[in-house]
Design brief:
Length: 113
């Protein structure tokens, strides 16, 4: 089984007024179903109120991410699934709950780490 990263950037999630509570409830319900199915690895979102930092090999800290890269933000879910087809089904469920399309990638998991 492979681990799949299902994610969306913050800007993709445009929720009409009054629906944010329903989005949270619906997204948590999908995560609860993934846990019950035994496919859940982890989920969460980037805390955009906290500035990222780049840390060099010598320990030097530079505030902010790579200036040339798009910002890393939004929500992330990792599920362990038997196939890409199964991952598409779960991504669609999350897309419906979050009211926005989800990006799907195979997570490069190293079982020896």
């Amino acid at each position: 089984m492979a681990k799949y990263l299902i994610s969306f950037p913050s800007a993709a999630m445009v929720v009409p007024d009054g629906e944010r509570e329903a989005v949270g409830r619906d997204a948590r319900a999908v995560i609860d179903e993934a846990k019950a199915a035994g496919v859940y690895v982890f989920a969460g979102g980037i805390d955009e109120a906290v500035l990222s930092a780049r840390v060099a090999a010598d320990g030097t800290v530079t505030e902010g991410g790579y200036p040339w890269a798009p910002p890393l933000n939004g929500g992330f879910t990792v599920l362990e699934l038997p196939s890409r087809a199964a991952a598409v089904v779960w991504a669609a469920r999350l897309a419906k709950a979050c009211r926005c399309s989800q990006e799907l990638r195979v997570f490069g998991f190293d079982p020896t780490s």
